[in-house]
Design brief:
alpha/beta, two-stranded antiparallel ribbon, globular, single chain, Rossmann fold
């Protein structure tokens, strides 16, 4: 079993609900129903187990049910667990209608006080079960005495009971970050070297199930991911448990398994794709296994793959189809190890196509294609070539309206995957972005006055000093201060430093550079005077 590590955000949400639940007469439970969803092996069950442990520690009545069974069996299990709190509640498995009796049991339990209901592994595609859960919750959720945590693979939608759906919150459970991964491996694989533990994160990107498989293989069979001869055996073990026994567990026909396997391997290379790009990839790189007879036939392929695997969905943030990140990580690894030349060829093709797509569209769509162009270029280009690509791409973004530039700036800051792929070149992207923002505020300062003028100059210095490519900060600041003072009215230069640095937060953000700016302004003001 994967030992529970971190999950601060998820447990924080549960703790907040528990605090409100224990004071339900005075305090509202703000998130009465939470669905923790994500791929198999991501740690959803561990979250519910931790929630159950917290219930025990805090004296909260709770029921934990494995919902990966028939609706009738789930209802019978709920009745059996309810008997622990109310002996008079039927639950011997002989009731004629356990679904209805479970609803009665829930109402009876809530008459006595607060209750936590934990339903693990709810099948979002099982409409009968989802509908029954809606009905179960409909009669009790308004009482503010119940907290419900569920887990699912795809995320639940309660579409029939508005009173239930409006109280549902969804949380996409993510892989461990590096810190949590390090903590997990320190607890479970202390015999491995630090270098070996780092390689586990690099291979799995914090996907708990893949981490566990890799860790055990390295400990028990002495496999080393740094040795070429050990990489295939390690990969095979990860693929067997993560993909064959997990993602493809519900696919019984071998031809369908092979099709799904091939589709995920190919479609994991792009971070996002539309139907046009999917068709081009298939017909260029996997025609024998995946080609369809017409463009219309390709439209049903993503749905077919997702019904079989539950890991290919429309990604709203990326505005395209995407393989779930933990599974995509494993297939990327498979591509790099087993077919490196093909992998590079596909990356180059994707870089070219995204650049072409960017020429054909405008607005937010262009920004997305340019981000993907950078991502795929970073996989194949030399450092020198990538530098030129980054400069050209950022220059194109700078030419967009300021609102779109700001959108790119914010999305780039949040796109950890792109920044990690760019590596050291991330500094160049930020440098170019900060330079542009600094100059925009400098230009705005020339056309404004008063408080707005000063704020623009503060923003100029803020972004100017964020540029990590500046090697001699004092010389660079001296030049900027001299140029700015020449544009200021002569009679206002003496008090300019005090006015600029009056904002304590701004001055604190500059650190030691605040004193340097003050000194430079005073020196140049004296010279000009």
């Amino acid at each position: 079993m994967i030992r529970f590590v971190n999950r601060d955000a998820e447990i924080g949400l549960i703790d907040d609900a528990f605090h409100a639940l224990k004071n339900y007469k005075e305090e509202l439970v703000r998130t009465p129903i939470v669905d923790f969803y994500g791929v198999n092996g991501i740690g959803k069950t561990a979250i519910l187990q931790q929630a159950a442990k917290r219930c025990q520690d805090e004296g909260l009545r709770h029921i934990l049910i494995d919902a990966s069974q028939s609706t009738r069996q789930v209802a019978q299990d709920l009745l059996r667990e309810a008997q622990h709190y109310r002996a008079e509640i039927a639950g011997d498995g002989q009731v004629a209608n356990p679904q209805r009796e479970a609803q009665v049991a829930m109402r009876e339990l809530l008459k006595q006080g607060a209750l936590v209901l934990l339903l693990d592994a709810v099948d979002a595609s099982n409409q009968e079960q989802v509908r029954w859960i809606e009905t179960l919750l409909r009669d009790v959720i308004e009482e503010n005495k119940v907290f419900v945590a569920l887990t699912s693979k795809r995320g639940l939608l309660f579409e029939h009971e508005r009173s239930v759906s409006r109280k549902l919150s969804t949380v996409h459970v993510q892989p461990f970050n590096r810190r949590s991964c390090t903590l997990y491996l320190e607890q479970n694989a202390s015999k491995l070297s630090v270098e070996a533990r780092d390689s586990i994160f690099e291979w799995t990107q914090g996907y708990p199930l893949a981490m566990q498989v890799m860790m055990q293989s390295m400990l028990e069979q002495q496999l080393d991911p740094h040795k070429a001869e050990d990489q295939r055996p390690l990969l095979d073990k990860i693929m067997e448990q993560v993909v064959e026994q997990g993602v493809l567990a519900g696919v019984t026909q071998e031809t369908e398994r092979e099709e799904s396997r091939s589709a995920l391997a190919l479609l994991s290379i792009p971070r996002r794709f539309n139907l046009m790009l999917m068709q081009e990839l298939i017909e260029r790189f996997e025609p024998e296994k995946l080609r369809r007879q017409s463009s219309l036939a390709y439209m049903g392929l993503p749905k077919k793959i997702n019904q079989a695997t539950n890991v290919l969905n429309w990604n709203v943030m990326r505005a395209g189809y995407a393989v779930e990140a933990p599974i995509r990580t494993i297939f990327l690894l498979k591509n790099r190890i087993e077919q490196p030349e093909r992998y590079v060829a596909i990356q180059r093709f994707l870089a070219l196509r995204n650049r072409q797509f960017a020429e054909e569209v405008s607005g937010s769509d262009r920004l997305r294609y340019l981000c993907e162009y950078l991502y795929h270029s970073a996989q194949t280009e030399s450092a020198q070539a990538l530098t030129e690509i980054i400069k050209e791409t950022v220059q194109r973004i700078i030419q967009e309206p300021l609102s779109l530039f700001q959108q790119f700036f914010e999305e780039f800051r949040q796109d950890q995957n792109l920044r990690e792929t760019l590596g050291e070149q991330t500094k160049l992207v930020y440098s170019l972005l900060y330079q542009h923002l600094a100059q925009e505020h400098r230009r705005s300062a020339r056309t404004t006055s008063g408080a707005e003028h000063i704020q623009n100059l503060r923003d100029f210095f803020t972004y100017f000093l964020k540029d990590a490519t500046i090697t001699d900060v004092q010389a660079a600041l001296a030049q900027q201060v001299a140029e700015i003072l020449l544009e200021e009215p002569a009679d206002q230069r003496a008090g300019f430093a005090g006015e600029l640095l009056r904002d304590e937060k701004f001055a604190a953000s500059l650190g030691e550079n605040a004193a340097l700016i003050k000194t430079l302004i005073e020196e140049y003001s004296s010279l000009e005077g």
